Amino acid sequence: MSNRLRSLAFSLIGATVLVGPAVAVDLDITCRCVVGGVNSGTAEWIQNDVIPAFEAANPDIKVNLNQFGGEDAQLTQQLALDFSTGAGPDVTAFDGFLIPSFVEGGLLKPLNEVAGAEVDGWSGWAALSDGSRALMQYQGQYYGIPLGTDVRMIHTRKDILAEAGIDADTWQPTSWEDVLDAGRAIKKVRPDSFPIQLNAGVAMGEATTMQGYWLALLGTGEAVMDDNGKYIVASQGILDTLNLYKTIYVDEQLGDQRAQLLADGRNRSFANFRDGVTSLLFEGDYFYRSVTAEGSEFAVADRDTVMGWAKVPAKVPGAGIRGQDFVTISGGTGFVLNPATDAPKEAWALLSFMNEPDMQNAFQAIQPRITARTDIEIPNNPFLTEASQTLLPLTTARPNDENYNTVSAEIQRMTEAVVSGELSPEEAMAQYKASVIGIVGEENTVSLL
Asked: Contacts for 106-110 with beta carbons within 8 Å, 24 or more apart?
């Protein structure tokens, strides 16, 4: 073990070492991460920092990392199957928006119900902001510990904007039309390009809903649910959003229509940006800190010179949610405990250990990010520091509702129907309305038209 890992291990011993008989315990931890592949930084952190330090502090516990390289939806399906049969990893990475549906399906339990009263006494809860805590909460109970949060923006290829005669260092659209105009200018000098990427379609899953639909819908002043907790199933905002998709992908071919319909479409969108085919890409800060980082599959050469970012504008100034000129939305991931784990105390020890300051700082050294803990800084990363300071005050979040995941799938189908040219925006919205009413009941929906 390196001196750095030995130091980390012993600095955490007081809070995380289990006291008891020397009985060997094996723990499994799963994440959508592969060393050298998807979310490589997470895999490297767990494999090279967390596991060696935890095992040094707890010599009777052995930890195995399961590296999952498939899509988010595939991991979700696998976890649902495993948890329903009492199988699966002891600790697993988990997207917070899935918690309500898993809880209502009997597939997750509160941390303190799984591991006991020591959960409530963990000192780390005090270091989490209210917003961060909410990422892994449901009905006032903690189901996991959040690893971090994020923000969404327009990632730009400054070199290509410059080719189109746009000042890349100062470009900040103040309306949807400004974004479209920039795409048109780029298309003129690069006719074979697809300048704009606003995620659409079923294959991209929640990335369509969160990085695409939400960002446009918020710009109309609306959200997926109203202030009374009812799903909005017909509105001018929905029509405006779908017409924006139609303009980009059908009418003007400013986006790669085919990529929205392919099983590997999201990876194709990443490759398009890397290769200069796309130059205005709506995504989370994850795209900068992970997807385009040096050594990754979609690394952008000379990234900090050629890449920039801009705030997502409302349809027109002041038209955004809460009357904002610019909009964004935040989500969050973390780790949860398998309610059927055979070693709940040890699993909690690992989960809490991962989220102590020394371990979080070790992660930051590998991949700087916006963390859930308020006592962890973003080290020497102007991009993420500026983005978090600028966009977190503007952000909103997905509804903490057990039906959200199912409704989100209908949003994805609605956007695909429009982007493919199968349905008009009006027809797609009518289909969405009928589907959502069937899911949640008409009394839990509202039409604004």
From this structure: 107/79, 107/80, 107/83, 107/339, 108/83, 108/143, 108/336, 108/339, 109/143, 109/339, 110/141, 110/142, 110/143
